[in-house]
From TrEMBL:
Residue stretches making up the Lactate/malate dehydrogenase N-terminal domain: 1-142
Binding site residues for substrate: 82, 88, 120, 151
Function, as annotated: Catalyzes the reversible oxidation of malate to oxaloacetate.
Family recorded in the similarity comment: Belongs to the LDH/MDH superfamily. MDH type 3 family.
Enzyme class, spelled out: oxidoreductase
Protein name from the UniProt record: Malate dehydrogenase
Protein's organism: Flavivirga aquatica
Length: 308
């Protein structure tokens, strides 16, 4: 199993590290445009192998796509991150060009690959890869909901005073400060809906804290987060590599599912060897449907800025 990660910055290196630590891939290629940068990150990571106990071989390359040939899975993290006070949507001007060029170079050398898009604004960048390449739709997947759901579980555990392993919940919709739809009505503590434990007001706070999770970290760090994003990507890569058929909320191209079409947005998906094996059309309350529709409008507005 060969995995390429484009962008050896904060998120790309974190992805490579978590993939290696989980020890299911034979090879990870890190590629960056900055001379020597990916080589340096790969060497540093390889020097953790005997300490962390993995055999995955990590190599770094400067913009040489021939070294990525025949990758089973490619992750795109190249592009600029936001700074405090910015939205993810403001990154479109620079990142769209990067994502378009990178995806076409990857496919040239790995025509059968599955692509996971991370660069922001992620739903729009995922849609751009659908529109600008010939890959089938099950092989282009955006990562956002896996991260947002992890943040939702963190906030739920905090509100409940419970261990994180005791809570479950999912975030669907666009990966944006306003567009996320944390499904609070379906969130559970050990099978019991959280409304049994939390007031309406506290649940509203959990939802709001989840939606601005990325902005909160950007304010604290001066740039956006990388540990949880890297872990979220590695979980999706593992599900595909090991054909686990686990459900992750992913940005998938919709063609009528949930009453939506012609956009990529976060919905529950079964991930396996074929990438998105199935979009799971869970039933939503009227309020959840309305929020998802509003979120889709926001994503489509950003998609409208693309030069296709
Ligand atoms: N979808 C998500 O949940 C999620 C989570 C975190 C970050 N992100 C996004 O991921 C992206 C990367 O974030 P980061 O913190 O790692 O940024 P970073 O600046 O640390 O790293 C980005 C790397 O991309 C490289 N790069 C730029 N253009 C390139 C090109 N054409 N080819 C190859 N490499 C290129 C840069 O040299 C840099 O090393 C940002 O757009 C950020 O908003 C998304
Ligand atoms: O917040 C960001 O800009 C980066 C990423 O989308 C995140 O949610 O951490």
């Amino acid at each position: 199993m060969k995995v390429t990660v484009v962008g050896a910055g904060a998120v790309g290196a974190s992805c490579a590290e978590y993939i290696a630590i989980k020890d299911f891939a034979s090879e990870v290629v890190l590629l960056d445009i900055k001379e020597g940068y990916a080589e340096g990150k790969a060497m540093d990571l390889m020097q953790t192998a005997s300490l962390n106990g993995f055999d995955t071989k990590i190599t770094g390359v400067t913009n040489d796509y021939s070294k990525t040939a025949d990758s089973d899975i490619c992750v795109i993290t190249s592009g600029i991150p936001r700074k405090p006070g910015m939205t993810r949507e403001e990154l479109i001007g620079i990142n769209a060009g990067i994502v378009k060029t990178v995806s076409s170079s990857l496919i040239e050398h790995s025509p059968n690959t599955i692509i996971i898009v991370v660069s922001n604004p992620m739903d729009t960048m995922t849609y751009l890869v659908h529109k600008s390449t010939d890959l089938p739709k099950n092989r282009i997947i955006g990562m956002g909901g896996a991260l947002d759901s992890a943040r939702f579980k963190y906030r739920l555990a905090e509100a409940l005073g419970a261990p994180i392993s005791d809570v479950d919940g999912m975030v669907i919709g666009g990966h944006s400060d306003k567009g996320m739809v944390p499904l609070i009505g379906k969130a559970v503590r050990n099978s019991v809906v959280v409304s049994e434990f939390l007031s309406e007001e506290r649940m509203g706070q959990v939802v709001q804290d989840t939606k601005v999770g990325g902005a909160t970290l950007t304010g604290l760090l001066g740039t956006s987060a990388w540990y949880a994003p890297g872990a979220a990507v590695s979980g999706m890569v593992q599900a595909i590599a090991c054909d686990t058929k686990k459900i992750f909320p992913c940005s998938a191209l919709l063609e009528g599912e949930f009453g939506l079409s012609d956009l990529s947005i976060g919905v529950p998906c079964i991930l396996g060897a074929n990438g998105i094996e199935k979009i799971v059309e869970i039933s939503l309350s009227d309020a959840e449907k309305a929020k998802l529709a509003e979120s889709a409008e926001g994503v489509k507005k950003t998609n409208g800025l693309l030069e296709l």
